[in-house]
Amino acid sequence: MKVQRGVWIVTVIAVVLFLTVWVFPIVWTLVTSVKLPKDVFTYPPSLIFEPTSANYEQVTAGRRSLVGDLWTSVVIAGSTTLLAMLVGLPLAYAFARLRLRWRNVLGVYTLFTYLIPRIGLVLPHFVILRWLNLTDTHLGLTLVYLSFTLPLAIWLMVSYCEDLPAELEEAARIDRATRLQAFWRIVLPQLRGGLAATTIFVFITAWNEFLFALALGGQNVRPVTVAMYNFISVEQTLWGPLTAAAVIAMLPVVVLGLLAQKQIVAGLTAGSVK
Predict the structure, then answer these.
(1) 69 FRET partner, CA 20 to 30 A, in 6, 52, 137, 220?
(2) 191, 168 in Cβ contact below 8 A?
């Protein structure tokens, strides 16, 4: 009993330390976002101060408002996620069910396109987009984002498709259902958890993208991850507005995760118990 209690205590301490390290930057960002400049630079830092909403007002309604940039991120990340799921799900199903001749080669190629360092693809993407006259456009950034979110969607969905018993589809085919009907009526309802988890991961990946947005965007199309750097200059860093912008940028992902948390847990645990 003493050994088990000791293991339990060590586990609790490890979890608390991990959560502290993980939560501290978020809490610090939230606290800094409601501080005046004089409170931000107070040393040693103090948790006793007069909160202010001036930073959020500057970010949402001031000269450096991020409302338009936030909408740009919503449009690009949402379009990327929609296209990645519409294209990735059928491809993942094909990888899982069809006995393609070059299946292994195509699978390795798909994985490679996701793992390759993105900084090595900036220049080729820039040349292609400039040739197509798509630089600094929503469509251009969406297509670029699709180049690394589509492989992610395929590889995540392949595992969920492989976990489904093929006998379910075979039974539907015996009842004279086509492969498309079997996929729509039998397979798709069973993949709801996996679809939710994959959609969230793809959306977060697109939402957090910075390198391609910085190199291939511009004044017309500027996601919020790039626009936040308006508060950083050579002379000074406006920590209050910067942290307020960071909080606002985190909200869509947090809200989406909370709304779909049950589906995400179901998708992450799918196939662990059969």
Answers:
(1) 52
(2) no
Question: How far out from the chain centre does Cα 164 lie?
Answer: 25
Question: Is there a contact between 70 and 250 (Cβ–Cβ < 8 Å)?
Answer: no
**Residue 217 CB contacts under 8 Å (≥ 6 apart), including other chains:** 136, 141, 223, 226
**Range with the largest mean pLDDT of 49-63, 138-152, 223-237:** 138-152
Domain containing residue 107 = 59-269
Asked if residue 255 belongs to a domain, the reply is yes
Helix (H, G, I), strand (E, B) or coil at 254: helix
The pair of three-digit structure tokens given for residue 54, joined into one six-digit string: 């001036």
Copy the structure tokens of residue 68: 């338009």
List phi, psi (to 5°) of 237: -120, 120
Respond yes or no on whether the N-terminal peptide bond of residue 124 is cis (omega within 30° of 0): no
Number of domains in the chain: 2
Gap between the Cα atoms of 271 and 12, Å rounded: 28
Q: Is the dihedral of CA 256, 260, 261, 266 positive or negative?
A: negative
Asked whether the beta carbons of 37 and 59 are under 8 A apart, the reply is no
95 and 34, same domain (yes or no) = no
What pTM did the predictor assign?
0.83
**Alpha-carbon distance 11 to 6, whole Å?**
9
Cα separation, 267 vs 127, whole angstroms: 38
The candidate with the shortest Cα–Cα distance to 167, out of 274, 33, 58, is 274
Q: What is the pLDDT of residue 265?
A: 67
Coil vs helix vs strand at 222: coil
pLDDT in tens, 160-201: 887 777 777 777 777 777 777 777 777 777 888 788 888 888
Residue in 16, 6, 40 with CA at minimum distance from that of residue 237: 40
